[in-house]
Amino acid sequence: MIPRAKSEALFAEALKYIPGGVNSPVRAFRAVGGTPFFVNKASGCRVWDLDGNEYIDYVGTWGPAILGHAYPKIVSAVKAAADHGTSFGIPNPFEVMMAKLISSAVPSVQKVRMCNSGTEACMSAIRLARGFTKRDKIIKFDGCYHGHADSLLVKAGSGALTFGQPDSAGVPAAFTQHTIVLPFNDEEAVKAAFTENKNQVAGIILEPVPGNAGLYLPKPGYLEFLRKITKADGALLIFDEVMTGFRLAFGGAQERFGITPDLSCFGKIIGGGLPVGAFGGRAEIMDCLAPLGPVYQAGTLSGNPLAMAAGIAALEELGGNPKSQNAYPRLDQLGAQLETGMKDAAKSAGVPVTFNRCGSMFCGYFTSEPVHNVSDAMKSDRERFKKFFHGMLDVGIYFAPSQFEAGFLSTAHSEADIERTVGAAATVMKAL
Ligand code: KE4
């Protein structure tokens, strides 16, 4: 265990003032044990903790750091914007630039509304779907996470077709009674739900590539099936691209898989690391939003100039202008190198690992079985994951502190970083 005395001391202090010592649960290392480190600085693909330990970072602040941390063009854009004020609550030009950038990158988004988190984006998109369709029911999938709005903190009911049960204290059953939870990648379950709830479903919301139970992919034809069945019933297809947006392609998962959803949610990358969320889609749907239409949605800091400046710099660098690097082939190439290396490491260590990847998002599960949904993921060996996590952390490599999170590469990672990572993984896995 490498020394982290300063982080240990500060965590003890944090516990006195912040529930669990953290401002978001996953950061507390409860899934892997031990004490979380506090970051002192981050740059490129590396973070340094308070004790000066350096880590290659495969979390990337859960997705936003696709260009690496402290990316110079993002930092200078934020500094320049800050000199003109940090918030106005008055329309500012950056909001229009951001809306045009998102709309030009994602053709299904004719209009877009900015907000301040992925949770807000998904919550608002669902309210909008209900307002537009005048229907109450929403279908979501087990293992997909869309933020912590009450009606989405729900687990599958007793039967796959019964309505969801609250999955958090403080959520009244009444708040989840219109949420149907189905297994992902199971077409029969969706068909049955629509038969059972004909013309009553406002929409299906899903992560097109679920990254909140580790990472698994839609089976071939599954997204096309969801597009077809929602259109036939008059329900909306809502892609939660908070994680996949501008990650899997400049146009997100919908570009990569060639699907046109009715509404899309964004976050993370579009804020360049600052607090942000957005949701958008067909103008006829978006125009139901206040102040034009009857669906209320608002936010003091929505379109905040610093978050917009950071996000615009990020999107322009990722592909928003012809001069920019085309990041995606590079991200795919680094992802392929990591996948091959991790699979070779597991083989050489004689440890069963299923390594799922889509572009620069990935997850290694300690299981010999394929992982296509959350119940498959739950069968993985979490004790092995815990040991692997700490073994890698102790040699300066930081993976997500939970088996049920995705990992992220950035354009700041190098082939040498990945070589070092897979070499260390082979050694650490041998000791599992
Ligand atoms: P935020 O409210 O955390 O900005 O976004 C919620 C959200 C919505 N949709 C998807 C697909 C997401 O991945 C998220 C948030 N992702 C988690 C990582 N698994 C954020 C990390 C955390 O909760 O601290």
Describe this structure in words.
The protein is built from 14 helices and 16 strands. It has 432 residues and is of the alpha/beta class. The chain is globular and about 55 Å long. The two termini are 15 Å apart. The model has no long low-confidence stretch (mean pLDDT 96). The structure holds ligand KE4.
Q: Report the end-to-end length measured between terminal Cα atoms.
A: 15 Å
Biggest sheet descriptor: 7 strands, mixed
Stretches with pLDDT under 50, minimum 5 residues = none
Number of helices: 14
Strand content: 15-25%
Report strand order across the widest sheet.
Answer: 4-12-11-10-9-5-8
Look at the structure and name the CATH superfamily of the largest domain. Type I PLP-dependent aspartate aminotransferase-like (Major domain)
- And the CATH topology of the largest domain? Aspartate Aminotransferase, domain 2
Dominant shape: globular
Look at the structure and give the CATH class of the largest domain.
Answer: Alpha Beta
Key terms:
single chain; 432 residues; alpha/beta; Aspartate Aminotransferase, domain 1; Aspartate Aminotransferase, domain 2; 2 domains; 7-stranded mixed beta sheet; 4-stranded mixed beta sheet; 14 helices; globular; binds ligand KE4
Task: Give the helices and strands, then pairings.
Elements: H1 5-17, E1 39-43, E2 46-49, E3 54-57, H2 72-82, H3 93-105, E4 111-115, H4 118-133, E5 137-141, E6 154-155, E7 165-166, H5 173-176, E8 179-182, H6 187-196, E9 201-206, H7 222-233, E10 236-240, H8 252-257, E11 263-267, E12 277-281, H9 283-286, H10 305-320, H11 327-349, E13 354-358, E14 361-365, H12 374-377, H13 382-393, E15 397-398, E16 407-408, H14 415-430
Helix pairs in contact: 2-10, 3-10, 6-7, 11-14, 13-14
Ligand KE4 binds at residues 24, 26, 62, 117-119, 122, 145-147, 207, 211-212, 240, 242-243, 267, 405.
